[in-house]
Amino acid sequence: xxxxxxxxxxxxxxxxxxxxxxxxLFSQAIQAQTFPKNIQEQIGSYLTAFSKKEVSIGKIAxxxxxxxxxxxxxxxxxxxxxxxxxxxxxxEIYRNIKSLLPEEYKKHTVQxxxxxxxxxxxxxxxxxxxxxxxxxxxxxxVNKPLVTRLSIPYSPKYGLKNKHVALWQSHGFYYESxxxxxxxxxxxxxxxxxxxxxxSFVLPYLIPMLENAGANVLIPRERDIQTxxxxxxxxxxRNNSHYIEHTSTNGWRTGEGSGFAHLxxxxxxxxxxxxxxTCRVTESIRKGAESRAEWIPDIPEKGRYAVYVSYRTFxxxxxxxxxxxxxxxxxSEFSVNQQMGGGTWIYLGHFxxxxxxxxxxxxxxSNRSSESGKLISADAVxxxxxxxxIARGTSQDATVTANVKSSDxxxxxxxxxxxxxxxxxxxxxxxxTEAARYWMQWAGIPDTIYSDSQGKNDYTDDYRxxxxxxxxxxxxxxxxxxxxxxxxxxxxxxxxxSDAGTTPNDSIVGTLGxxxxxxxxxxxxxGTSRYAARELTDLIQSQIVNDIRxxxxxxxxxRGMWDKPYSEARTPRVPTMLLELLSxxxxxxxxxxxxxxxxxxxxxxxxxxxxxxxCSQYAQKYVVQPLxxxxxxxxxxxxxxxxxxxxxxxxxxxxxxxxxxxxxYTRIGDGTFDNxxxxxxxxxxxxxxxxxxxxxxxxxxxxxxESFPSEILSAARAVNEKGTVLIVNGFDRISAPADFTxxxxxxxxxxxxxxxxxxxxxxYVGPMKEFRRSTPWVDDDAxxxxxxxxxxxxxxxxxxxxxxxxxxxxxILKAGYSFVSxxxxxxxxxxxxxxDYPIVDLILGKQRQTKMGRGGVVPLQFKTFSTxxxxxxxxxxxxxxxxxxxxxxxxxxxxxxxxxxPADREFATNTLRFQWRTGQxxxxxxxxxxxxxFPVFSGRYDYHxxxxxxxxxxxxxxxxxxxxxxxxxxxxYAENNISAGVAxxxxxxxxxxxxxxxSVRTGxxxxxxxxxxxxFFNQK
Length: 1020
Known about the structure:
Number of helices: 18
Largest sheet: 12 strands, mixed
Number of strands: 52
Shape: globular
Radius of gyration: 31 Å
Strand order of the largest sheet: 34-31-30-43-38-44-45-52-51-50-47-48
Distance between the termini: 117 Å
Strand content: 15-25%
Helix content: 10-25%
């Protein structure tokens, strides 16, 4: 009876509700009929035309009109919600709609609504002049974040200090149980694959930008590209590393609960290394004798490694656990808030370590703290990225599920099929290439987070795990109080993807943003509307599109802002954006997309969008970190004193990004850079010891954070110097590979010019193999137009390190000469004169005139010899100066480039005394000395001619020949005897090489070659 009575009441309420809805619809229909249909259509047409100035979307239609007293409400379709609304364009829309109204409605107020909101309500907080103090925003006050870097000499007041960002870079290598193989989740196209492509934004650019602004960044994939991994743990080490405890008043003891233990080489099913060991604990002290735990790794190879720590969180955990990382002669200190983040890997930073095991390479945890009587926990330390160690095979119940899309079937309803029995196997790939699902298992995340399918489908588990991982991170905090987790207050989450799709006419597919509001009752735990995710999406998408259009491509397409239930946008309980930056399947997009300059700009735009969103939520002023400095010059100002000078760079896109101070980082010998010296002016002096190379780099600083570093300059005073050489670094190019377009074929021709990565490239899978535009995609193994080889899937490819004066300088110092260095801009702007030095060494590397994207929109960059540089060199040589120039395009950029001029060729012929003969002169990377009147040049030399992780590739060296009397060939390419280097002797001397000096493989060979060049210059 009770059930029937309840059902009756429900039925009555339902009938009443239907009656109200029907009345409203009927009333609205009548009202809409009273409004002229042709005017309604005109308003829709106006909104469509208005939208096309900014967004590539479909038709905007006015579905209905509601007229009440002196107010008219126009209900627009979903397409209208894709517009980025601002106060000015909302005012313009209302003004123009009113102009279309019949006379009898001219005095009515007007409102346009779409997706249940007035368009003025969709203006992001960051763009509102009038703030609503009653509006809930997504924020939590945090006094002590997860990790605080204590060694940096700044605190970004108006950046992202004490903020936490969770982000991830698309997919990753995974086990496909239906094929019994490991594979990428997307196809290899245009020399990359989405699983790696978005990493090439996130790891080298976006994460450092956010960290430089003060944020803690958490990602569910390995962030270290180093393939070695060393685990040091209190429960024992599977290598020659050691864990040591030093006990004082408060001793170490085994803590309650589980901890990490490295018991096996590979992990299967749901084995969790953080449930198989123990942790150690002690109480914190403020003064007195300290207790310490030390993790001393046995480093297999000198290099750069990420350092992660782990610990257990207790009710009485400290908020100030002091870790110190000793690395390469320096040390960096951190404070870790152990009240959050226990039971997983917590990233501290990347550091340079020497090979071997010693006290110069170690991690130390002290119980000395700013608070006493709190528990300090010590568990394993992880150094390096390593290879994947999660072995996958047939699920425990021998079933698999279909690979449904992120926007399709909700979790828990996937159809199951019988599986083919297959033994467990690891990927064999570096861990940074693998999907998030495997990192989470290695990082101790519960299997309920990373394997929704209970091992039946790693594909769906991977994308479903990312949103759940965000909720696990912030579980237990005020932002997600009802779920268990790590208590980390995440301010936003961000999913970085590229999309599929092609265009037939070389037009841009462009940028799409996705968020979702209709879940969790439409709000976050603190009552903030989930439309905050739309604000985040709008800010980031707008910044990306505006910056690309301003700097590179005015035709860049802005797609919609979709409010759709994609798993990565739906699941997180924090504001989240899913970005589809561009189409990795579309050649027009990828001509921009694989250029490092584009990657920097897009990453900076994303950082700026995040910054503006978070600062608007906290009602805080924002300041954008500056751009890197340039015009560097390093000179002796005393017998052993140098002065480094530079110039700040303004950002034409961001008025707040002005430098206020600078940090100068110093490296002595082959050690690591120190933690920097804060300076207020754009110059710095330092005393150097003779016979040692000192190197310097500079960052700009303001209240928003720290810029990316400058190029690196070096100097050294020889003990018994024979003279001083000025090294000019003219190699500042970073670029995409060469490409071509035709009616039926197009593509990247990286065998002609591979381009130049910034520092290194982690996204290149191999050269293109399918250039026919008409070839369709069949499956990921036959990807159609753009299909690429896989021979470089796991190769980290060296790029421009901006550190070549130290390489040249080492050989100059070995020959008994002192040296200083400067950037090419310092010479072009006449801030430094070549005539102050008897010998100049001009580094050109792979410098050459380079377009951006389709070309013809913005000026070419990276010319080998600018007009200013040509004038300076000509004057220098005419006054008797000697110059050494080396570069892969030293001749072709002046002769064989469409932008080359007769003046360029005259400069090469009449000043440098050489002429270009051919490009792509050799492929084997060997040169040999040639008979000449200059017998000082002798021997054979090898240079880097294939892709590798150590030095950038020289795939297209120049063949060059002497021009005029006094010049002779001194080196030839061994495979074909084409001239590779020339020397000229007259009133001055020149030595020109068609391959870069720094690309010579060994230091010993470089020393021999430099000795020959300097001896030639000093011979009478």
